[in-house]
Design brief:
- The complex is a heterotrimer of chains A (108), B (186) and C (86).
- Chain A has one domain.
- Chain A contains 4 helices and no strands.
- In chain A, helix 1 packs antiparallel against helix 2 and helix 2 packs antiparallel against helix 3.
- Chain A is elongated, with a radius of gyration of 18 Å.
- Chain C is flat, with a radius of gyration of 15 Å.
- The model of chain C has no long low-confidence stretch (mean pLDDT 88).
- Chain C has one domain.
- The chains are: A mainly alpha (108), B mainly alpha (186), C mainly alpha (86).
- The interface between A and C is large, with 48 and 45 residues.
């Protein structure tokens, strides 16, 4: 029973990882690619790590895997925000079919 | 600014002038020691002793950056209740956002309307605004690009812009998290 | 057996990320792709550690996560001070 749950989690993680990587290739500009990056990290990697820890049961492995998952969960938004802010400050344009850019209008 | 405050706290601590600081110092020490034990993964006496020394040193230097305010507020039961209720709401928002973005990725013509909108927020404290920005960035589909401190609003890149007016964006993007965060952090 | 299949899928995702890192027109594109690539490599390391029963893989994954975070922040800070070039 436990193993079935673990393999379901691992399968969801692998599917999210490959779909998110496809999104990184397909999306048209940096900001949209960061959304796909979030899909890879949260839906792919963290769910995979949770599945691995469930598969492992109670041991010292589990604690370490959960620490890695918590660390990724805490640091990924900081990194995404830093990259997006740096991209906007260094002048990367939005996609040509973007609807609105309030940041450019109100804070040039 | 930050380092000045640190030095200030350190001097006050060495004179024993902050009675309130003892509790937060102890909590920081226990958390750091538990992290050490979890990382080394052994209960050997020497490991524990070295961990206690290192954790005490790091806690003495850095507890002022982690905890602000009084200890009494940290153990308010209502705030912990809202924090517990925040977890399933966060999980549900995450699930919906993932399904949404996966639909956009797999759709052949990719029906997205990206744009950067302004999202005003009523949160005041630093922890609250940080938590809101992190939650918005963590859900795929919304990404906080810039935090404006003077009028306390976030500039959010939205993958499918449904509204530009600040009231509508605040209701659609920030409200699922702000509803809990304003009770937790104020 | 299933673990090996999941590892192969994750390596396929790594190849897609490497494709974007090679193509990417601007520098932030490459950073985003390499960030995702590192996260996928961390999950692959953890799965290998579970498969071979070797805890050293987990330590390597933990240190790799730390260094990747610091590297991302450093490159983002570096990009803020300069114009857009490839």
């Amino acid at each position: 029973m436990i193993e079935i749950i673990a393999y379901i989690l691992l399968g969801i993680g692998a599917a999210c990882a490959i779909i998110g990587a496809l999104g990184i290739v397909r999306f048209p500009d940096v900001y949209n690619r960061i959304h796909a990056n979030t899909v890879v990290v949260v839906g792919g990697v963290i769910v995979t790590l949770l599945g691995a820890s469930v598969l492992e049961g109670l041991s010292s492995y589990t604690l370490k895997i959960l620490i890695i998952a918590l660390f990724l969960f805490l640091t990924n938004p900081v990194g995404s925000h830093a990259i997006a802010r740096a991209a906007h400050k260094s002048g990367v344009k939005l996609w040509r079919r973007s609807v609105v850019d309030k940041l450019e209008e109100e804070k040039p | 600014m930050q380092s000045e405050k640190l030095k200030f706290d350190f001097v006050l601590l060495s004179k024993g002038a902050i009675p309130m600081a003892k509790g937060s110092l102890f909590v920081t020490f226990v958390c750091l020691w538990l992290a050490w034990i979890a990382l080394t993964g052994s209960l050997n006496f020497q490991e524990l002793a070295v961990g206690a020394i290192v954790a005490a040193f790091v806690a003495m230097v850095s507890y002022g950056l982690l905890f602000r305010g009084k200890m009494r507020e940290k153990f308010d039961l209502k705030r912990w209740g809202y924090a517990l209720a925040y977890v399933p709401a966060y999980f549900w928002a995450e699930l919906k956002a993932h399904a949404n973005v996966i639909y956009y990725i797999l759709h052949p013509r990719m029906p997205i309307k990206p744009g950067i909108v302004r999202v005003p927020t009523k949160l005041q404290s630093d922890f609250g605004i940080t938590g809101l920005a992190n939650a918005i960035t963590m859900t795929p589909g919304t990404l906080s690009v810039e935090v404006s401190e003077e009028d306390s609003s976030l500039y959010v890149h939205w993958i499918n812009v449904k509204a530009v007016e600040p009231e509508q964006t605040s209701k659609q993007i920030a409200w699922p998290f702000e509803r809990f965060l304003r009770r937790i952090f104020g | 057996m299933i673990l090996l299949g999941i590892l192969i899928v994750i390596f396929g995702a790594c190849l897609l990320c490497a494709l974007r890192a090679a193509l990417g027109p601007t520098a932030p594109d490459r950073i985003v792709a390499i960030d995702a690539l590192i996260a996928l490599m961390i999950s692959a390391l953890v799965l290998l550690g579970v498969y071979y029963r070797a805890p050293i893989y987990l330590d390597v994954a933990l240190v790799y996560a730390f260094l990747a975070f610091l590297g991302t922040l450093a490159i983002a800070k570096y990009l803020e001070g300069r114009g857009i070039e490839t």
